[in-house]
Amino acid sequence: MADAPKIPDEAETRARWGAFAWTPENQVKADEILARYPKGREQSASIPFLDLAQRQVGADTNTQGWLPVPVIEYVARQIGVPYMRVFEVATFYTMFNLAPVGKYHVQVCGTTPCLLGGSDDVLAACKNKGLSKGHTTPDGLFTLTEVECLGACANAPMVQINDDNFEDLDYDKTTALLEALAEDRPVTPGSQTGRRDSCAIGGPTNLQAMVDANHDYRGEWAS
Questions:
Q1: The domain at 11-92 falls in which architecture?
Q2: How would you classify residue 130: left for phi > 0, otherwise alpha for psi between -120 and 50, otherwise beta?
Q3: Does this model's pTM top 0.90?
Q4: pLDDT tens for residues 38-59?
Q5: In what order do the strands lie in the sheet with 159-161?
Q6: Which residues are annotated as a binding site?
Q7: Top-level CATH class of 104-191?
Q8: Phi/psi class of residue 42: alpha, beta or left (left: φ > 0; alpha: ψ in -120 to 50)?
Q9: Binding site for [2Fe-2S] cluster: residue ranges?
Q10: Which of helix, strand or coil describes residue 173?
């Protein structure tokens, strides 16, 4: 549990977030979300409301956002259910942060395909840039978390940073990515080797002979 995130003191959290309420813009979004569900089914809005709340906290703190207890309580009141019903959702889904994170939440996949593909090198690059699992860098830029499968196994190893996936990484590419983010330079999500989607590294191969043969047939028929 050495890399477990530190949740702030409750008194401090309530002093900072006890008066949380939707911004006017987010109130409009919340009304639109709630309108999707029948009367009596407001609890179905738990996930989108928590996501909206986390993003509002992130905008307020210039981070990826997190969910202080008073914010979860506010969401529960908004949909008319006990706090625990919403807390259960927030603790189940790893996309919700229960402790403060940095501007960039770097989530490194350590599941078998990424491990075999070189996730240890990705973690080494993070470590050598000052990132430590379960902690935020002193400048508030990066929080590092090791997570389970993020669903991009064909392009392993990969990381998710805030809302974006970065795939086909190695030590040098990870280092370059972190340096670009630290310097506020633009980065391109997806494969960092330029491959399209999840094609084989050498380009499309599956059924390629059939595709080529079909193309030749069509050409002959057209002529």
A1: Orthogonal Bundle (1.10)
A2: left
A3: no
A4: 999 999 999 999 999 999 999 9
A5: 142-147, 104-109, 159-161, 164-167, 190-191
A6: 109, 114, 149, 153
A7: alpha beta
A8: alpha
A9: 109, 114, 149, 153
A10: helix
